[in-house]
Every structure is written in structure tokens, then in C-alpha cells.
Amino acid sequence: MDMVKVKQACRFGLRGVNHLLWPAVCISCRKSICETDNNLCKDCWEQVLSCAGADYCRRCGRDASRYGLVAGACPDCQGKEIHFDQIARSGVYGEALRKMILAFKKGRTELDSVLGFLANSALQGSGFYDDVELFVPVPLHWFRRLVRGYNQSLVLTKTLKHRRAQISADLARIRYTKTQPMMASPAARAKNVAGAFAVRRGHQFAGRNICLVDDIKTTGATLNECAKTLKEAGASKVFALVLAVAGQKVG
Ligand SMILES: [Zn+2]
Ligand SMILES: [Zn+2]
Hints:
The protein is α/β, with parallel strands linked by helices.
């Protein structure tokens, strides 16, 4: 047997041992799967993908038929002041995606393989992929990051595949804000995050096209405030990419 064959045999042997010690399981429900199943079992893929797809308003991210838009705005966001130029989403905040995002925020960072796949698909279909020059994860206050151990938006941002855009950490959350309760009014949520962000000295935002990245958009108050801060720092365009848009009926 020549060396190449010996190496191949070792590799297959190791993979076999590896599989025996750590059999492939669905990272959501832990059912056993084939290694080619991309981390989720068929049922979980179906459930997650049922939250994805559907036409949405590129201005606010809510479900909307493209025929129901007036000057690019759906009935829900018409007349609303939105500081980001366009939004892309993976899906709606339905049961399967919600479960996965909540687990992702509670330490299950290995879910980034599946969530990253969804985020990349949304980015590819966004229409602004080619324009992006910098990715900016929505920052956590340092104290919350200390408690959680990581910023889930940064973990998600690191999964994004782009031929030239870099990640910038020069947007900071300078004020500790209460967790936005799901049921709070849009005005209350906007007030809660007003003035909560700032750019770091030496930032590279002026004249650049930036894509903000976050896990969920509810009323959009956080994304709006981040986009406003980036525009005040001279950003040319600000896009937003989120996994899920909440606060609407899931069809
Ligand atoms: Zn599963
Ligand atoms: Zn809209």
C-alpha cells in the first residue's frame, strides 16, 4: 500500500471512530442524523424553513406582497421614519425559528451553522449584497455581553460570506437599556434606546455602505437608532440584515 492509500485509510478510519464517539445528531432536537444532513434533521429543517420565504416589505421587513406596496412602502410602514435604507430577513419569528434564536442567545452558539445558512441566504437575496462595504453587528452593552459571554449578533455576523466586506466593531452601546419587552409600544421602545449608541473614535463609517446585523427585529427601534447613529457619523447607506421579524401574525 502506498503512502497516499495509507493516509486515506487512516482518514476514513478516524472519521469512523469520530462518528462512533460523537454520532451526528440534529442540533435542535438531538435526533440522530446523517453527517450530510447539515446539522438539522429533516423535520427541523422543514419547520425552520416554514418560517422563511414569503414576500416581505424591503423597507420594514414585515410580510407584504410586492403588489401591495406604495412607493416601496407597505401599509404598515407608510409614513414611518426609518433610518435604514433597506432590510433583508431570513423569515418571520415563528415557533421553530424563535426556539432556535432563543437557544442561540442562551449559549447554544453551535446553532450558528444553521442560522448562518439562513442569514447568508437572506443576504444573497437582499438586492444590496454588492453594495455592502462593512458589516456592523448590533452591539450589546458591555455588562450584558459579560453576563452572556458573547454577542450573538457578532457570532452571526462572522458566518456571513462576502467577497470584500469587513466586520467593524466601532459602533458601541453606551447606555444600559432594559430588555425591550415584546409588548411595549413602538414609542416606548424608541424612547428606551434613544441615544444608546455611539461610534468609537477612529471609526471608518464616513462615506461607506454599511449592513447592520441583528437576530430579531421587533418594532425596529434598535435598528433605527443604530442606523441613525451611523448616518450621523457620515455613513452613506445603512442596510439591515436580521434572522427574524417579529410582531406579526405567522401564516
Ligand atoms: Zn431535529
Ligand atoms: Zn413596510
